[in-house]
Amino acid sequence: MRVKIQPEQQIQRINHLKNVLKEYASLSDELLIQRPNEKSWSVLEVIKHMSIGHLAYREKIKNALANTEDKVQKIDELSCTVIPNYLIKRFPPSEGKIRFKMKTTKKFQPMIMEEQVPSAMVISELEECLDELKGWVDYYRTEPISLRKFNSAVGAMVRFNIPEACEFILCHNERHFYQIEKILK
Amino acid sequence: MYQSLLKNAFTPLNLETETHSFFFNCWREVEFKKGELITEAGRVENYFYVVIEGVQAIYILTPQGEKKVIGFSFDGSFSGVYDSFLKCRDSHYFLEAITPSRLIRIKKEEYDQFFEKYPEFNEWGRIAHQELLIGRVQREVELITLTAKERFDVFMERCPDKLLEIPQKMIASYLNMTPETFSRMRASIS
Question: Do residues A177 and A20 lie in contact, with contact meaning Cβ atoms separated by under 8 Å?
Answer without folding.
Answer: yes
